[in-house]
Amino acid sequence: MISIQDYAPIVGQEVIDQLRQLAEPLKGLKVVHVNSTKEGGGVAEILRMLVPLMKELGLDVRWEVIRGGERFFECTKGFHNALQGKSVVVHESLLQVYEKTNEQNAEDLRSVLEEADVVFIHDPQPLPLLKWCPNRKGKWIWRCHIDLSHPFRPVWRYLRQFVADFDASVFSLADFAQPVPHTMFLIPPSIDPLSEKNMELSAQEVNAVYSRFNLDKERPILLQVSRYDRFKDPVGVIRAYRLAKNFAPYLQLVLAGGGATDDPEGEAVLAEVNAEANGDPDIHVLRLPSDAHTTINALQRAAYIVIQKSIKEGFGLTVTEALWKGKPVIGGDTGGIRLQVVNHHTGFLVSTPEGAALRVRHLLQQPHKVAEMGVKAREFVRENFLITRDLRENLSLMVSLSFGDEERIELEMRQ
Ligand code: UDP
Q1: Half-sphere exposure of residue 243, counting CA atoms within 13 Å on the CB side?
Q2: What is the mean pLDDT of residues 93-122?
Q3: Is the pLDDT of residue 218 over 90?
């Protein structure tokens, strides 16, 4: 069982002391997080670590997952794509399934939700729950992890009516936000340096992935870890690899994905990827179970360069994970990748397969540059994107919502 104190050697004792101090006035607060999947995807990753730490700090925290059928997830996948800018018309009958599913989930969760002091609703899937909790006593916060900068308007208009009733919204970046009729907070996501996904591994554990996936230890690996989703542009990654392969025939490509249970489009995208790979023995298209955290950790460590060629991205936790492992990241110039990939320092921002191939070539020719950028990458994450910073901001948010009416909130902030 990981304790908050275990983070002290990584972030410093002062940071831990400050978290304890910040949590003091929140002891016993009833907090409920609600999302739509226990495993796979960025939201589940964050909750898996944030929830136990908040509990340890004395808050009374629960994590609830709403249940839904195929058509519910078809609908919310449509929302997801539409909110990220695609013109998706979500049929009226699917909207009914969406609302009905939330109504049914509210039946099971109502007493917990109405009694809570603070409820965090993650992403659009559980948004209508609030409507079915008329006697709620706490503050409700919509935690949006999606890039809402250019939503398809009809879908946003529909969802906004549910959002409007909340007390506050949280976005990952200012650029991702839409006007909402309540307080808006900005909290970039984070990773847990002690989780299976990010903890240090022995050489033996890293080496295990070479034989397991038939990779050549002597040749550099280019890696993308992502759900099979068009916004992650896996086909563009294969094109970039092919261009790079022209001058570096020894290059290997690993695409690792699969997992999220709320993504019915994955199969179709996987088929497109396999067609594009066209039997190339140096392209390894892996389908991993959703709990393959150590495997992903080892692949990220075994990689020479990590790529995340997304065309649209929320925050891009896979980028944070790779940077933390000292790998420069070639990232799509979009969303939260821009916040993490500091061009020429922690990696390179690219917009096309050609651009990505050029950067791959550059780094293959200059191993010292890879090492230099890797050191900067890790430090950048230590400063900005670890769980301790995320926890601090979430606690601050709850303090401000719970004591916001008081004239003065005494907090001794050292950082
Ligand atoms: N992930 C995983 N298995 C996969 C693909 C991704 O465990 O097959 C993890 C990945 O390591 C990261 C998260 O899921 O922690 C994906 O978060 P990100 O923000 O990159 O993208 P999202 O899937 O939320 O769009």
Answers
A1: 16
A2: 98
A3: yes
Segments making up each domain of the chain, as ranges = 4-190+386-403, 203-384
The string of pLDDT tens digits covering residues 299-358 is 999 999 999 999 988 889 999 999 999 999 999 999 899 999 999 999 999 999 999 999
Quick one: which of 373, 273, 352, 257 has its CA closest to 309?
A: 352
Q: To test the ligand 1 pocket, which listed residue (318, 321, 390) has its Cβ within 8 A of the most ligand atoms?
A: 318
Length of the chain: 415
How much distance in Å is there from the Cα of 180 to the middle of ligand 1? 28
Say which DSSP state 191 is in. Answer: B
The residue behind tokens 């320092």 is 345
For the CA atoms of the chain, what is the radius of gyration?
22
288 lines ligand 1 (CB under 6 A): yes
Whole-structure pTM value: 0.86
Tokens of 239: 């094109």
What is the atom index within ligand 1 of the atom nearest the CA of 291? 7
Between CA 323 and CA 406 the distance in angstroms is 41
Q: Which of 77, 195, 213, 317 to mutate to test the pocket of ligand 1 (most atoms within 8 A of CB)?
A: 317
Residue range 203-384, CATH number: 3.40.50.2000
Give the CATH H-level superfamily of domain 4-190+386-403: Glycogen Phosphorylase B; (3.40.50.2000)
